[in-house]
Every structure is written in C-alpha cells, then in structure tokens.
Specification:
The structure holds two protein chains of two kinds.
Chain A lengths: L3 H4 L41 H15 L3 H14 L21 E7 L5 E7 L2 H14 L4 H6 L24 H16 L1
Antiparallel strand pairs in A: 1-2
Chain B lengths: L39 H11 L10 H5 L9 E2 L2 E2 L1 E2 L10 H14 L9 H20 L8 E4 L2 H16 L5 E5 L4 H14 L2 E5 L9 H7 L4 E7 L11 H10 L3 E5 L11 H4 L3 E5 L10 E5 L1 H6 L10 E4 L4 E3 L13 H17 L1 H20 L4 E3 L13 E6 L4 H12 L1 E2 L1 E3 L4 H7 L4 E5 L6 H19 L3
Parallel strand pairs in B: 3-15, 5-6, 5-7, 7-8, 8-9
Antiparallel strand pairs in B: 1-2, 4-10, 9-10, 11-12, 13-14, 14-17, 16-17
The chains are: A mainly alpha, B alpha/beta.
C-alpha cells in the first residue's frame, strides 16, 4: 500500500483535534464524508474509500509517537461508538479469540453495502472497533475483503501487541476477520 | 462534516514533553509523576524515600538475585521494565542460559543411542537432569520422573494412559472449579470416551475451593482426584496431604498440578503421598519446551504408552511391539535434551539459593503486595485474605471497578513498563464462579522487590486515574 506520508500531509496543528468524523448512521449517501477531510491527498492506489480511510488511520496513529496519546485517541474513538443494543450482545455475535469481549453485528443494506455495528467491554477495544467500523461501514463487501490483515500493521498503535502476530489479544485481526467472514457470507 | 469535541477539557494530543499531564492533574499523584527511570538505583532510592522502608543491613533476596537475570535490566516503552507476570512464565538466570549454550556449543548429540563421546556426554547430562528433578521434589527413584514438553502434556499422559485403561462408565473424577484448563480439558475428553463423570468442587464463602464439600464427594465411585497445589488465580493453597489421604481411603489416585508450587516452595512428593504430579520448567527459571511428570513407579510400570515412537520401545515387530520400562516408555522420540539440561541448571540455581529461603522471601513479598493492593480504591482481590493461618502465594488477581483488566494491563505496559497478565488465566470456570469474565493478575518471583510492588501500585493508581478521567 501507499506510504501514509505520500497520501497525507498534515500540519501538527491538525492533530489538536481528532481527525475523523463519527461513523455514519445507516445513511449510505453520507458515507463519503472522508472527502470533506481538510487534507491534500493523491488518489489511493486501491481506488476505494476503504483504502483511503486505512491510509488516514495509518497516518493518524503514526503521527502519535507517545503511547499515552494513542490510548487517548482510542478512548476518544471509543466514546464515539454508537450505542449497541443489549439484544445484540449475545454469544452469536461474539468475536472469537479476543482477550476482551467484543461483539460485531454485520448486515447488508438495500444498496448491497456492508453495515457494521460493534461493541466491547474494554474501552481500548471499543476504540479499535470504532476505527474498523468507521473504515468499513458502508463499504462494498468486495472492498471489505480487499483489506489485508497486514495492512493493519501500518496502523500500528502498538498497544500491548505485535500487530504482525496473530494473537488472542489482537482485536484488530479478530474483528476484521469477523467482518470479512460476514462480507464473504453475504456476497 | 461533523466535528466532535473531546469529552474532557483536558483531552488533548500533547507533544511528548506533555505526556505526563494526566498524572499530575491530581495532586495526590504529583510525587509519582515520574515515568522515565534511567537506572535501578535512581528508581530504588526514589521509591525508598517515598514509600518502602529504607534498606538496612543485607540486601533482600530480590536485590541480590536481580543481577543474575539480564532480561530484567532493560527499558520497555520508554520505562524501566517491571516484570510481574511470573505465574505465566519466569525469567532465566545467566546460569541457565550458559548451560544451554554449553550444551549446544560443546556436546550437542542425541541421547541413549550413540556410543560416541558427545552422545555419552549428552546422555549423562540428560539423565543427570532427571536425577536433579527427582531430588528436587524428593522422589525416591529418578525412574519416577518422565520428561514431557510441558505440564499439560503430563496431565494428558496420565489421562490417556492411566485414565483410558482404568476408568469405566460412571466412575467419578473429582476436580475443583479453580483448575487450569490444562487440568480440566484432558479429563473431559477421557470422561467422554469412557462414560466417566467429572465432579467439580465449588468455591466456599471465602472464595476458595470448598474442602469440606470435597471431602464429602469422595466415594467408592471416585477413581482419581485432579487438583492444583497452588491456584494460579486465587493464590490459595490446597491441603494436598489431606486430599491424598481421602482419595486413598476410597482407593482413588491423586494427580497434582504443581505448576505454581514447585517453583516457589519445597514440594515433597513422598510426604504429600501423591500418585502423580506435574510441573513445568519455564515457570521455575528453566527453558520452555520441557516439563515433567512424577508418577509412583508401580503405577508408571503398569501403564500403557501414551505416544508411540523411537526410544519408548523394547522390540518392534511388524504386527506388535514391546515397550521399554518407565520413564523411557513415555518419552517417545528424541526428547528436548538441551531443555532438560537447562532445567537441571535451573534446579541447581534454585537449590543454591534454597527453596525455603525463596519461600520465606515470597511470603513476605506476598503480604506486602496484598497490603498495598488492597488500599487501592474500588478494588476486588480474589482469593483469601492473608492471615496468621492463611498464606497466599505471591500473586494477586483483581479487578478495579468499571475498568477492564485488559485496558488496565495495556496502559500499565505502555505508560509504565509494567508487565502483568489480563484475561481469564486459563481458568474460565473459576472466573464464572467469581462472576467476572476476566481479571488482572500481578505475580511475583524471588527476583522481585518491594520497590517493584511500590512502582506497580503507583502505576496502577495512575492508570485508574487516567481511565476515570475519561468517564
């Protein structure tokens, strides 16, 4: 994938506030909010919103050199995650293999776009979930499947895990895998 | 585009020089606002002044042994490493690292086969390691020690070999809800195969396995009891000698998971009168990839092989084979030779310090940890409160109200360089009994110090304060 720096040149002041908007509600027409981001960018090689968002996330977390700032950013994103229905917090929606409890609900809307909701009992995991939902909610199933596990290594938030390794603590991988399985099933 | 403002006025993405803004917001944390510590001596003196009693006289066991563990002297995530995940695995002293290097540099060879010099030397050292293990747990005969790849394999060996050939439908296997998954799952598999029944001892009001209920569970149907010696979550100790007596009274066998006791105290299999006992090398300063099973020789001799392969046979024909005597019968294929020799070196190292010395120091450290931890607001520590009668192992599993243990452990690691465990610690049934899905666990070994505990407590308070500031 493209280097984040070639895609995204932000002045340091841009990081005084969180970069990204709230994930869209079920209104696919608004899913292009990324275009409103005030940053110059070249066209992503993969030609999709998903790839663009992935690069943005990578650029954002790469710019935060201190772990505490990455944790703060994730906690902020955790607070943006829309409320999750108690009825959805069931074993069938549990993401297997996480050290924390994570739930994901995946659906396809009438425009054949994937719609994701997620939640966790851990605030940091909720932050991861927000990032993935923000990145993949409203995407075509084909685009969801296009994301490579290794791409997430570039969003290295470095929080208690080596993102290259498949580990039970690796919420990124496990949630992405769940989302991709759902996308494959709905194709 | 919707722009969302942070929840807190103090929420900002600071430059590195402002990274401690959270810690100094509350005046009670001001003196703990430091995080980068360049050396042990600086750190120790700072904390000594603040909290711990000044070191007088001879240094503690922790202080005197720390230099033997090169891995402890490093920075992680910009902070001095404070390693408090010893119940998961221990660190290795230089003596063990050297033994491994000597083996691979000097006499690496396969054992029990070659007649050449290297093979003879490797065999001598390998068998010497077996004798060291036997002596360490006071087994009467080194043939009673079977090297396995870990303790889990030891449990599986007993389950598949002894269990499959001795258990019948409706026979009962007694365990506690506090067992490690490695002690539960093999017996679930065997019980399903033979139609035996697993009976679990619940926790009592004090939050430890109910020994009185266990005593009532024994009957002529009981064929084996599978229990931990020291709980890896509750830090409680089971009265193994009594349990063995109750089991033997009804003709049942006892298998003890001693993973959390053998590294920390004197364990005497003859005095405890257990039939089987398993432990693992990596929790007692030895290499990974090796553990051992102790089994009384008459039992081992009567048991069929578990795994087939080289080494464990006497003669092989096309239609059948005859098997070697224990322990070879249970060591199919080339064993973990270097690892066994490394385990032998670990035992030499531990014995050089003295297990009683290690235990006494850990009891003191354990009390200190509990006292400091219980003072943290809104904390729940699992297992018994220490008292004159009740000794806890040097570990505490806990939860802080409204804070996920994994978030807590992540922040401790990232911001403070403190390594602890979070999760269910391979004890999901126990966590269900405790009414939680996971917990945080801090676990000490003899190379830890009170200063480590102090630093952990400061880091924990800072962590709680950090997350509370987001609520």
């Amino acid at each position: 994938m493209l280097s984040p720096t070639t895609l995204f040149t932000l002045s340091s002041s841009s990081f005084n506030s969180p970069l990204f908007p709230k994930p869209n509600t079920f209104t696919p027409s608004k899913s292009n909010a990324i275009n409103a981001i005030n940053a110059p960018c070249t066209k992503p090689k993969l030609g999709s919103n998903v790839a663009h968002k992935l690069s943005n996330l990578a650029a954002e977390f790469t710019s935060l050199s201190q772990p505490i700032d990455r944790v703060k950013r994730l906690l902020h994103y955790a607070s943006l995650l829309p409320p999750f229905l108690d009825a959805d917090r069931v074993p069938a929606n549990r993401v297997g293999g996480c050290a924390t409890q994570v739930w994901v609900v995946a659906e396809m809307d009438e425009r054949r776009r994937m719609r994701f909701r997620a939640d966790s009992d851990s605030e940091i995991s909720k932050g991861f979930c927000w990032c993935l939902v923000w990145m993949l909610d409203g995407a075509k199933p084909e685009d969801v499947l296009m994301v490579d596990r290794d791409d997430l290594a570039d969003i290295n938030v470095g929080l208690g895990m080596s993102l290259k390794a498949h580990s039970r603590t690796n919420t990124w991988h496990n949630v992405l895998f769940t989302m991709q399985t759902a996308a494959k099933d709905l194709l | 585009m919707e722009v969302l403002l942070p929840k807190l006025p103090s929420f900002k993405f600071s430059s590195p020089s402002h990274c401690c803004s959270i810690t100094i917001r509350s005046s009670s944390f001001v003196r703990f606002g430091f995080r980068r510590v360049s050396s042990l001596s600086v750190f120790a003196s700072t904390v000594n002044e603040a909290v711990a009693e000044p070191a007088v006289g001879s240094p503690s066991l922790g202080h005197s042994t720390r230099p033997h563990f090169p891995i402890l002297h490093q920075e992680v995530n910009g902070s001095k490493l404070v390693y408090l995940d010893n119940a998961a695995t221990s660190q290795k002293p230089t003596a063990v690292l050297k033994a491994l290097q000597n083996y691979y540099e000097g006499y690496n060879s396969n054992v029990h086969r070659g007649i050449h010099f290297l093979s003879a030397k490797a065999t001598d050292e390998y068998e010497s390691a077996r004798r060291k293990v036997a002596s360490f747990i006071n087994a009467s005969d080194s043939r009673e020690i079977v090297f396995t790849k870990n303790a889990s394999e030891g449990v599986n060996l007993v389950a598949y070999s002894w269990g499959l050939s001795n258990l019948k439908p409706e026979d009962e296997i007694i365990l506690t809800v506090a067992e490690h998954h490695s002690a539960i799952v093999p017996w679930q598999l065997i019980a399903k195969k033979v139609g035996a029944v697993l009976k679990f001892v619940d926790l009592n009001q004090d939050g430890i396995p109910d020994i009185d209920k266990m005593k009532e569970m024994f009957s002529r149907k009981t064929k084996i009891v599978v229990v931990h010696h020291v709980s890896n979550v509750l830090a409680s100790v089971l009265p193994i000698r009594d349990i063995a007596q109750w089991a033997h009274d009804v003709g049942a066998k006892v298998l003890v998971d001693a993973c959390q006791s053998v590294p920390h105290m004197m364990v005497d299999v003859q005095s405890l009168n257990v039939d089987f006992l398993v432990a693992s090398s990596h929790k007692m300063c030895g290499p990974t990839g090796i553990g051992f099973l102790f089994g009384k020789i008459d039992l081992l001799s009567s048991m069929p092989p578990f795994l087939g392969g080289g080494e464990m046979i006497s003669d092989v024909y096309l239609d059948h084979s005859t098997y070697a005597e224990p322990p070879s019968r249970f060591e199919a294929g080339t064993p973990a030779i270097g690892e066994a020799i490394g385990l032998g070196a670990a035992i030499d190292y531990l014995s050089g310090i003295g297990m009683q010395t290690i235990h006494d120091y850990e009891v003191e450290l354990s009390r200190y940890l509990y006292e400091r931890l219980v003072s943290v607001p809104n904390i729940r520590i699992y297992g018994p409160a220490p008292s004159e009668k009740v000794q806890r192992a040097a570990l505490c599993s806990f939860n802080v109200e409204n804070l996920h243990p994994t978030d807590l452990a992540t922040f401790l690691d990232q911001q403070h360089g403190v390594a602890i465990r979070s999760g269910h610690h391979c004890a999901q049934p126990l966590h269900r009994s405790l009414g939680v899905s996971s917990s945080a666990r801090v676990s000490l070994y003899f190379y830890n110090t009170k200063e480590d505990v102090d630093y952990f407590i400061h880091a924990l308070n800072d962590t709680v304060s950090f997350f509370n500031s987001f609520k």
